[in-house]
Write a structure and sequence with these properties.
The complex is a heterodimer of chains A (79) and B (228). By secondary structure, chain A is an all-alpha fold. Chain A is built from four helices and no strands. The longest helix of chain A has 13 residues, at 45-57. Chain B is mostly helical. Chain B has two domains: 10-127, no CATH class; 139-225, Arc Repressor Mutant, subunit A. Helices cover 63% and strands 0% of the residues of chain B. Classes of the chains: A mainly alpha (79), B mainly alpha (228).
Chain lengths: 79, 228
């Protein structure tokens, strides 16, 4: 069963203003390192704000962050 | 005995198919089952008694299978949501379209639903499908986008990670170095903020519309999956 947030997010994905023409920004090695730090819980609070701001402008990176967190789960294949 | 083709269908979908094949008894049963609920839903959302009566008379009329060029309304039902939710969405969309027309012209010259003679163009199937251009979708989208925009980016990120990407609250807790109860409270308050801001924005835009948060979520879901 879908949760409410998923329903709302999918609705905006289908009908929102940004459904088309969104340009995917490249994830630089520096940003990738920050995502990994954040995923491990090692990113200083002072740096979290800037990274989160960039993630909000590039929502496609959120799945990369989620993947980094999942890779840390016990039993996940080593990267 | 059930027709073999119906065995893989839900009973609701099978009943809709019988209506589409011109089975008047199936359509009468459908109306019997859903009419009273639809009245309650439209009235609760702010439609007047006369608006409700006329909208539903039109809606059921459009559910009759026809041989002419106007397709039966039920052809647009995808079967991916409840029929009642879908009918309620169609009726709500038609009512919002009606209110929009009334606003544009002034209450004194508002056309009545079914006033085909004077407004034939408004009888075209604008209310039969969900598109990014229809009034209900615009209303839901604009309100929701405003609410998301007012949500702090960190809260929105947390909601995305948990509810779209399946991270656990424990994992979020480790990322932010928070307690699990703080994460839980943050997720709850962020959703409450979105709900509150969305409904406030709706009310600012259309004071006559009375939607609960669950109504809003249901309409989003039905518009997303319910229409072919």
């Amino acid at each position: 069963m879908k949760n409410n947030f998923e329903i709302l997010a999918k609705f905006l994905e289908k009908f929102g203003d940004e459904v088309e023409g969104h340009e995917f920004a490249e994830l630089t090695p520096e940003l990738k390192a920050k995502l990994q730090q954040f995923a491990r819980g090692d990113l200083p609070a002072a740096e979290q704000g800037e990274l989160i701001q960039r993630l909000s402008q590039n929502p496609e990176w959120v799945s990369r962050l989620a993947a980094e967190v999942k890779s840390l789960r016990a039993g996940s294949p080593k990267k | 005995m059930m027709h073999p083709a119906e065995q893989t269908l839900t009973p609701e979908r099978a009943q809709v198919d019988r209506c589409l094949q011109g089975d008047a008894a199936a359509l009468a049963a459908l109306r019997e089952k859903h009419h009273a609920s639809l009245i309650n839903i439209l009235r609760a959302r702010g439609a007047s008694e006369s608006e409700t009566d006329e909208l539903l008379a039109d809606l059921w009329g459009d559910c009759v299978a026809r041989n002419d060029e106007q397709p039966c309304l039920l052809e647009k039902f995808s079967g991916k949501c409840s029929l009642q939710g879908w009918l309620a969405t169609v009726a709500t969309r038609r009512w919002i379209d009606l209110k929009r027309r009334q606003q544009r012209r002034g209450e004194n010259h508002a056309p009545r639903p079914g006033d085909e003679e004077h407004e034939p163009l408004e009888r075209l199937p604008a209310a039969a499908t969900a598109t990014a251009d229809d009034a209900l979708v615009n209303l839901l989208r604009d309100s929701l986008q405003a609410a998301f925009a007012s949500c702090p980016p960190a809260d929105l990120l947390m909601l995305r990670l948990v509810y779209l990407h399946g991270l656990s609250q424990r994992e979020i807790m480790q990322m932010w170095s928070w307690s699990e109860s703080k994460v839980s409270r943050k997720l709850t308050s962020a959703m409450e903020h979105i709900a509150e801001q969305t409904l406030q924005c709706l009310k600012q835009h259309d004071a006559w519309l009375d939607l609960t948060w669950q109504d809003f979520v249901d309409l989003c879901e039905t518009n997303q999956v319910g229409f072919l």
